[in-house]
Amino acid sequence: MTLDAVSGRDMSAFLRPLDHGRRGLDLLVTGARCAGCISKIERELSAMPGVEAARLNLSTGRLAVTLAGREAQAGRVVAAVERLGYGVTPFDPAAGRKQVDREGRRLLIALGVAGFGAMNAMMFSVPLWAGLFGQELGPATRSLMMWLSAIVGAPCALFAGMTFFQSAWRSLKAGRANMDVPISIGVILTLVISFIESFLGGRDAYFDAAVSLLFLLLIGRYLDHVLRARARGAAGDLLALQARAAQRLNADGQEATIPVSDIVPGDLLRVRPGERIPVDAVVMEGRSTLDASLLTGESAPQALVEGDLCRAGAVNLTGLLTLRAEARSEDSALAAIARLVEAGTQSRSAYVRWADKAAAIYVPVVHSLAAATFLGGLAFGLGPREALIRAAALLIITCPCALGLAVPAVLVAASGRLFRNGVLVKSGAALERLAQVDHVVFDKTGVLTEGRPGLVGGHAMLAQAAPLARASSHPLAKALARAAGPGVIAASAVETAGQGVSGLVDGRPARLGRATFVGAPEADHAETELWFGFDDGPKTRFVFSDVIRPDAAATVAALKAMGLPVEMLSGDREGPVRRIAAEAGIDQFRAGQTPQDKAAVIDRLKAEGRRVLMVGDGLNDAAALARAHAAIAPGTALEASQNAADLVLTGEALFPVVDAVRTARSARGRVRENFGFAAVYNLFAAPAAMLGLVNPFIAAIAMSVSSLMVTLNALRLWMRR
Amino acid sequence: MNIIVLLAPISLALGIAAVAAFLWSLKAGQYEDMRGAAERVLMDDADDAPPPPRA
Prior knowledge:
The complex is a heterodimer of chains A (721) and B (55).
Chain A: H1 3-7, E1 15-17, E2 23-30, H2 35-46, E3 51-57, E4 62-67, H3 74-83, E5 87-90, H4 93-96, H5 102-131, H6 139-160, H7 162-173, H8 180-199, H9 207-241, E6 245-249, E7 255-259, E8 268-271, E9 281-285, E10 288-291, H10 293-296, E11 302-304, E12 309-310, E13 315-316, E14 321-325, H11 333-348, H12 354-379, H13 384-398, H14 401-420, E15 423-425, H15 428-435, E16 439-443, H16 444-448, E17 449-457, H17 462-470, H18 475-484, E18 491-496, E19 500-505, E20 508-513, H19 515-518, E21 528-534, E22 539-548, H20 552-561, E23 566-569, H21 574-584, E24 588-590, H22 595-607, E25 612-615, H23 619-627, E26 630-634, H24 639-644, E27 647-649, H25 656-690, H26 696-719
Parallel strand pairs in A: 16-23, 16-25, 23-24, 25-26, 26-27
Antiparallel strand pairs in A: 1-2, 2-4, 2-5, 3-4, 6-7, 6-8, 8-14, 9-12, 9-14, 10-11, 10-13, 15-27, 17-22, 18-19, 19-20, 20-21, 21-22
Chain B: H1 3-27, H2 34-40
């Protein structure tokens, strides 16, 4: 695609109206890494006429541009960023409008208030604790300190605890008891008792304990939220990178860029080489080959002529196509698979998460212990006041600070570590399920193989053809340029859409492209090919085919070494499947599998009691991905497959699959240690509280130390290389 | 002992000021782009102001 074509594109569909007649444009920029990138992009855009402001968010990769005046052309902004060498995709205004993270902000505010409350209430508690060591306070000062602690602690606890109270209330209304129920009861009971004690001039008040308990729990809650928000945001960005925009040919012959969802049947669409077919459509003009490997698993490209139907999701490989849309995007072939996915995902929701398993044991045990403490205290003649204080002390000191932090801290550390290694974890439950996997199933095309053409024949003239290949954005030319490595670009290169590139190589005119364009005899070859020749010289043929990923064999070997049987299911023909299986070192494979066959294989393995990890990218894998116990998709996978998968690989390599399984297993180990630690802690804390040995000072120390231990243990996962 | 009557409100006021500062920075969008902020400090003509929060 030439730059002129880009700047001529009409981007008005992606503009968002702002006040005073200004308009906003949201772009997703890839490749920006440092301060240099920020200033280069922002300075270049700010200097353009009509651009009022440009601000790049480096964390999310989103570039917000404010345009003013008529002369401002959004297409020129996009072209300018592309010219600087960054990948850029416009956001659909509906999807791009930044979702303000309300939940996260609410948790942060609660965390801030709880932090303030914990520190300041504790400040007034220190004199009370000091009184424990013999230097008795006067009753008036003691009472003053208690009330000061109450004035700070109680409102903060009520405000910061709202998240837990609401969740507990919702869960009680639904007839269940989640972890928030004992937390809420513990906090409210503690506040009430502390008020009574302060009023009666009693010995202990637990205001600081109630707030610091909430503070520690909110840290866990916030970590959990950050994990989910980060995964959601990154997954959205990956999808935005795929073809969500299409080029529509208007009646006047002008091309306009529109969101895929705006296409109606009958629209004429222009699809360039390397672009994805946006909806099911019929070819009106142009000849090309189509890579439908994501849809069917077949690696050989299909030839396409006028009148042929092409399915949404396939990639146009060679020629410029004009298509007539046959369906809306939501009615296209993709949608049918999406329904299969939904059915499969529901079967997975039966999974019970670690934290909920722990809560199922913890909640009834602690509540009956607290009730037993109160009743037992009455029976042994302690009196209702002392019995109630002991019951509340039990609830507070056994309250699951450690439990509430144990799982989120480990999962955040594990997913942060995986994110650095090129794996995006979509949910914490995904890591938990991944740890249990005992069988691995791979798809072939796009997973074990690169899923894009690689040069396999015709290396002789590579060095001469490479300068022309580097000047083109065509997928085959890119494959050629990759094979040749970096180098010079041909002078005065001109790309003819759907035909090839011509230009000067070593000062001689040369052409790279279709046989007819280069001037070679046209013959019907089964392979994907590209011709090259100097205008006055002999012509060479380059042959391409799907090649195995460089780290596929190492990945399979590592998984086998971990004791996981590896199997391959492919929709492709027997020949290529057998070849790739041999190269990757997989003994068990099936060829010619339909999407239903793949899902059936997963179901059969499940019936045998195996927990299957499915790694796949295509639409033909989506149903199998959704059914498997855990699922991984490469970042190049289609939207439906990424939705069905738990983890998405963000880089080119396949080996992160092994890292993911290893990290998930060690995360499970850390969680077990944390649970074990919490159990031991409660084994000592609970009897101490029942015997009345716990005072506010001991409660404060015990809670902080146990939470710190659990967090440090989780961080071991983050530190380890 | 009377000093407590003076010191306790002062300490509370300081604490409340810290919470207010935190809430303000949150609202002003200072936590929207942590990586960008770390890099922008290296730019010569850095514009420190975060973007206006959008509803």
